[in-house]
Amino acid sequence: xxxxxxxxxxxxxxxxxxxxxxxxxxxxxxxxxxxxxxxxxxxxxxxxxxxxxxxxxxxxxxxxxxxxxxxxxxxxxxxxxxxxxxxxxxxxxxxxxxxxxxxxxxxxxxxxxxxxxxxxxxxxxxxxxxxxxxxxxxxxxxxxxxxxxxxxxxxxxxxxxxxxxxxxxxx
Length: 171
Known about the structure:
By secondary structure, the protein is an all-alpha fold. The chain has helices spanning 4-12, 16-25, 30-33, 35-38, 43-49, 54-67, 71-83, 100-132, 138-170. The longest helix has 33 residues, at 100-132. The chain is flat.
C-alpha cells in the first residue's frame, strides 16, 4: 500500500485535502452525520462544525436545519462563536438525569440561551447589512429600527434569563 491520504486521494481522483476534510467528518456524532441524508445538510456545512463541542455542534445543526442555513452562513456563525469570550454559554447540555420542575427550568434556560445566541447573530447580520448600505435614507432608517428592536429583545431575554437563573439557584 502507498502513502496514506495521498494514495487514497489518487485512487479516488480527489485531492488529499478533500480526503482529509471528509475523514474529519467521521469524528462527528452519528446523529449529526445522519442529518446528511435526512435533512439536506451538506458535507460543507458539517465541515464548518468539526472541532466544536458535541452540544454546540448539535445546536448549530439544529439551527441550520430549522432556518435553512447555508454552509457559508454556518461558517460565519462558527467564526463569531470562536471569537466570543465564552461561546459555549449559548449551548448548555441539559443533564439527562434531571427530572420534573428542575429539568423544565434547565430546558427553559437552554431555550433562552439559544434565543439569545440567535438574536445576537441576527444583530450582527443587521450590522453587516447596515454597513453595506450606502443610502443614508429610508432603507438605512428601516434597518436601524429593526436593529434597535432586536437589541431591545436581547435586553428582555437577558432579564428573563436572570430571573430564571434565580429560580435555578433556589431549586
